[in-house]
C-alpha cells in the first residue's frame, strides 16, 4: 500500500497464484521492476536481467544489475544466503542488503536486548543503526536459533531412528508375505489338525491364500499397536530422568523389547484366526476372525516437539537443566499430570 501511495508499481510473489507467478519471475529482472516476495524466491529461482527476452540486459547491467533488499533475518542463515544469491548470478552484477529491526520476532524471541551491552543499546529510533557490536549480536542471535533448531532435529532423530529401522524390517517381511515369497507355516505348525481340515475341505491353495491374507492383516494391526505404544511411551519417558536414568536409553530399551513382541503378536493372532474360521462354519471366510478392510485410516505424525506444552512450561524451551529444586517444586504437578493421562487413556480404551 505504501509503495502504491508513492506511485511505485510492484508485483507479489507469495506462492498463492501459481499460474501467474512464472510470468512475474520472468519479468522481475526488467528495468524498473519491483517484486515483493516471501522466501519462495530463494533457491532455484533464476531472475534473468533484462526481462523474459533479455532485451534490456545491457541497460540493466550498466545500472548495477539486480538489487535484493531483505527486511528481516530468518532462523537459518542458509535461507538468507539463498535470497542474497538471486543477485550476482553467473557473473552478473548485483547487490544485496538486509535491513533488520531490533523489534523483529526473531530478535525478541532470542533476547537481543540481553545480548547487546546496556551502554551500546540504541534507543528507539527510526534511523539506521550501524555499529559493529550490534551487527555481531544480530549474527549471534541467528546462530543461537540455528543451534536450537539443530538440537531439536538431532533429538527427534535420536528418538525416531530406531523406530524407523523397525519399520523397515517389518515392511520387508510384509512385502515378502504380500509377494508370496515368505514361508507361511503358522497354521501348519501351530494348528496342525485345523490346517489339515482346511486343506481337505477347501484345498491347499485357498487355505494358504487365506493364511497370507490373515498374516498381512495382523502385521498391520500389531504394528499400529506398536506405534501407539511408542507414542504413549514418548509422552512420559522424560520422567525417568527424575530417577537418574537416561530417557533415551530407556526409550530405546522399551521399544526394542516391544518390537520383538510384534512378531509373536502376529503369529498368535494368525493362529487364532483359523480357530475362529473353523468355529464359524461353512466357508473359509476370515470375517469371523475380524480380518476385513479398515473402515478408517490412521496417520501417525512425527513433529519436532520433543516435549508437550505442559512439559515445556516445566522444563523450559531451551537446553535447561532440571535441577533438584525444580523437582521438589514440580513433582505434585507431574504426579497430577500422570494421573490425568492414565485416566484419559482408560476412558479412551473403554470407548473403543
Task: Characterise this structure.
With 352 residues, the chain is mainly alpha-helical. Among the domains are: 4-99, 3-Layer(aba) Sandwich (Rossmann fold), CATH 3.40.50; 183-293, Helical scaffold and wing domains of SecA (Orthogonal Bundle), CATH 1.10.3060.10. The chain contains 13 helices and four strands. The strands form two sheets. It has a two-stranded parallel ribbon. Helix 2 links the parallel strand 1 and strand 2 (35-37). Helix 7 packs antiparallel against helix 10 (204-236) and helix 7 packs parallel to helix 11. The longest helix has 48 residues, at 132-179. The protein is elongated, with a radius of gyration of 31 Å.
pLDDT averaged over residues? 80
Sketch the major β-sheet: 2 strands, parallel
Assign the CATH architecture of the domain at 183-293.
Answer: Orthogonal Bundle
Radius of gyration: 31 Å
Beta-strand residue percentage: under 5%
Q: What is the element string, with H for helices and E for strands?
A: HEHEHEHEHHHHHHHHH
**pLDDT < 50 stretches:** 302-307, 313-326
Instruction: Give the strand line-up of the largest sheet.
Output: 1-2
Structural class based on helices, strands and sheet pairing: mainly alpha
Total strand segments: 4
**CATH class categorisation of the domain at 183-293:** Mainly Alpha
Shape: elongated
CATH superfamily of the domain at 183-293: Helical scaffold and wing domains of SecA
Number of helices: 13
Amino acid at each position: 500500500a505504501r509503495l502504491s501511495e508513492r506511485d511505485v508499481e510492484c508485483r507479489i510473489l507469495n506462492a498463492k497464484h501459481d499460474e501467474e507467478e512464472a510470468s512475474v519471475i520472468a519479468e522481475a529482472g526488467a528495468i524498473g521492476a519491483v517484486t515483493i516476495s516471501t522466501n519462495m524466491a530463494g533457491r532455484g529461482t533464476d531472475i534473468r536481467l533484462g526481462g523474459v527476452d533479455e532485451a534490456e540486459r545491457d541497460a540493466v547491467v550498466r545500472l548495477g544489475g539486480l538489487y535484493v533488499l531483505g527486511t528481516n533475518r530468518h532462523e537459518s542463515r542458509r535461507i538468507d544466503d539463498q535470497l542474497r544469491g538471486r543477485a550476482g548470478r553467473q557473473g552478473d552484477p548485483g547487490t544485496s542488503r538486509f535491513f533488520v529491526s531490533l523489534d523483529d520476532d526473531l530478535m525478541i524471541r532470542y533476547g537481543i536486548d540481553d545480548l547487546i551491552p546496556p551502554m551500546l543499546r540504541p534507543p528507539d529510533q527510526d534511523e539506521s543503526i550501524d555499529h559493529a557490536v550490534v551487527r555481531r549480536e544480530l549474527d549471534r542471535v541467528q546462530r543461537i536459533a540455528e543451534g536450537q533448531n539443530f538440537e531439536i532435529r538431532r533429538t527427534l532423530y535420536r528418538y525416531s531412528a530406531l523406530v524407523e529401522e523397525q519399520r523397515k524390517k517389518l515392511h520387508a517381511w510384509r512385502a515378502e508375505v504380500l509377494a508370496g515369497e515368505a514361508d507361511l507355516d503358522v497354521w501348519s505348525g501351530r494348528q496342525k489338525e485345523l490346517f489339515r481340515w482346511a486343506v481337505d475341505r477347501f484345498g491347499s491353495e485357498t487355505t494358504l491364500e487365506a493364511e497370507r491374507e490373515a498374516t498381512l492383516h495382523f502385521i498391520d494391526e500389531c504394528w499400529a499397536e506398536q506405534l501407539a505404544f511408542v507414542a504413549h511411551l514418548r509422552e512420559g519417558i522424560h520422567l525417568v530422568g527424575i530417577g537418574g536414568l537416561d530417557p533415551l536409553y530407556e526409550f530405546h530399551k522399551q521399544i526394542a523389547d516391544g518390537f520383538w513382541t510384534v512378531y509373536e503378536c502376529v503369529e498368535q493372532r494368525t493362529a487364532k484366526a483359523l480357530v475362529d474360521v473353523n468355529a464359524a462354519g461353512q466357508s473359509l471366510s476370515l470375517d469371523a476372525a475380524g480380518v476385513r478392510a479398515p473402515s478408517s485410516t490412521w496417520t501417525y505424525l512425527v513433529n519436532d516437539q520433543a516435549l508437550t506444552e505442559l512439559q515445556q512450561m516445566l522444563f523450559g524451551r531451551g537446553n535447561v537443566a532440571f535441577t533438584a529444586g525444580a523437582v521438589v517444586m514440580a513433582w505434585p504437578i507431574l504426579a497430577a499430570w500422570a494421573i490425568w493421562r492414565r485416566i484419559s487413556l482408560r476412558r479412551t480404551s473403554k470407548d473403543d
